[in-house]
Design a protein that fits this description.
Length: 504
């Protein structure tokens, strides 16, 4: 006898269908799994055997063959346990084969028959909905799967309950979507005393999704400012929250079944390797830039990162996605993130400080800055200096604007951008930082004085075409914050001021 089970394997976020074929035939007792299984699948034989025994059953003393088709596709993951068990039970006549035809199946088995949670349930549920299939998954993942809008979800706590459900002797309730995660942002921009220029630049960066680099001595507040950026960013839309949750689900970082509408904030240590930052590894897992999709990637101590690791950011910063090429597969992950970086002006951190001057200037700064390439700097829209704040200013300064006040202006500016893009028939992007080509020319209209200033400055300072266009996008955001339909000379002047620094 032969039975078929619909299951899957992952290639990044892409779901690749797998036809699991189970056969029991006469011959010497054996249990074989073929079709390029990895170690976790090869070990599933013992988990399946023990789980079936927990039902009071024994595998027949015959030749059991599990084929994972297509046979030339590498299969990975412990989520094949449940499909293998159901395939064998279907051939044994315990589970009706017809009841499994309309389901995608995934789940790990415990030795006692419990169905344990696995990674990647949300993207699988989305794919199952597209294929007009139901989903059989662990009970712990049922609320996560329900966000895909499936009407057929069998989320079972153990193998016995699932068999009863498939035999129509017991019915598993349809899991309800968990409540959205509560916004737990507690940091507020009002905590930052002084640094008005940096706070203004951070507001512009948030409004247009622009990349930003802060340079200043140790303790000047660079990390403090960056940590408060999520508090002034608008919440994610449902589509953005789902896309971000699917990446976390595949990476095994979806800690709660409820969607979070707070934009992700990732701050990897500077010792992070290139695969950890951009993704990769043996199983092609998403890296920090993909986990920061629709949110913020903060790189503190930027020159301390490895040079190849930083250079790997160049293509994702332009395209909003990263392609990881391996011998066996090519994986594409979304990575539409906002880069916020911070660094000291030199290795000791005190270049230009009149009270504690760098002892090796200017060589110390030259060596330190040379770790960041020109092409990477060219992709950063805002470069600002964050000077040290004196104790007198810290003690005497009043609390500034709250994050809620700044956030209201950011949301208003983003709505202007969304309405403008919708009127132009563009729905794939939502911020000025992603404007390109003809769309950039049509939506970034300058008055004559502004155009003359930008062209003159670009010619005198030999700005690249990329820097020219990024300045134009930045000026568009500044105009949106002031609710101006046309880019004026003042907007261009402010945008140009953020591209110049004594350090670069």
């Amino acid at each position: 006898m032969l039975t078929h089970i619909n299951t899957l394997t992952f290639n990044g976020l892409e779901i690749q269908r797998v036809d699991l074929q189970a056969q029991i035939s006469s011959g010497l007792p054996n249990f074989i799994i073929v079709g390029l299984p990895d170690k976790a699948i090869a070990e599933s034989k013992e988990r399946v055997r023990a789980a079936v025994q927990s039902l009071g059953l024994q595998l027949p003393p015959k030749r059991i063959v599990i084929n994972l088709a297509p046979a030339d596709l590498l299969k990975e993951g412990s989520h094949f346990d449940l499909p293998i068990a159901l395939g064998i039970l279907s051939v044994m006549g315990i589970v009706p084969a017809a009841a499994l035809n309309d389901y995608m199946v995934m789940g790990e088995l415990g030795l006692d028959g419990a169905i344990l949670p696995v990674n990647g349930v949300l993207p699988v549920a989305v794919q199952a909905a597209k294929d007009c299939l139901g989903l059989i998954c662990p009970a712990a993942c049922g609320a996560e799967a329900s966000w895909a809008g499936l009407q057929k979800i069998a989320a079972a706590p153990n193998l016995q309950c699932l068999i009863n459900h498939l035999q129509n002797t017991e019915f598993l309730p349809l899991p309800a979507p968990a409540q959205p995660a509560i916004d737990d942002i507690t940091l507020d921009m009002a905590d930052v005393k002084g640094q008005e220029t940096a706070k203004r630049a951070l507001e512009i960066a948030a409004a247009g999704g622009h990349n930003m680099l802060m340079v200043g001595p140790p303790g000047s507040g660079k990390s403090m400012l960056a940590a408060r950026l999520p508090s002034i960013l608008p919440p994610m839309t449902v589509e953005e929250a789902l896309a971000t949750a699917m990446i976390k689900s595949v990476a095994g970082e979806l800690k709660t079944s409820g969607l979070s509408f707070t934009r992700p904030f990732r701050d990897p240590h500077h010792s992070a390797s290139t695969p950890a930052l951009v993704g990769g590894g043996r199983r092609g897992t998403p890296g920090e830039i993909s986990l920061a999709h629709n949110g913020v990637l903060f790189l503190d101590e930027l020159p301390e990162f490895n040079r190849p690791t930083l250079e790997a950011l160049r293509q994702p910063l332009e395209n909003g996605s990263v392609q990881i090429s391996r011998v066996n597969a090519h994986t594409v992950f979304p990575s539409d993130f906002q880069l916020i970086a911070a660094m000291n002006p030199c290795r000791c951190g005190y270049l230009g400080n009149k009270d504690k001057e760098c002892s090796r200037a200017p060589l110390c700064a030259k060596e330190y800055m040379s770790k960041i390439s020109g092409p990477l700097l060219d992709r950063i829209d805002i470069k600002i200096e964050v000077p040290a704040v004196s104790p007198w200013d810290l003690a005497g300064a009043k609390r500034g604007e709250t994050s809620a006040t700044i956030r209201s202006r950011v949301i208003a500016a983003r709505k202007i951008q969304a309405d403008r893009l919708a009127a132009a028939g563009e729905t794939s992007i939502c911020t000025n930082a992603r404007l390109k080509g003809k769309l950039l020319e049509d939506l970034c209209v300058m008055d004559p004085e502004a155009e003359t200033l930008l062209i003159t400055f670009a010619d005198q300072n030999k700005l690249s075409a990329r820097a020219y266009h990024r300045t134009l996008r930045l000026a568009r955001t500044i105009a949106d914050l002031q609710n101006e339909s046309k880019i004026r000379k003042l907007h261009i002047a402010e945008a140009l001021s953020y591209r110049q620094s004594q350090y670069f």
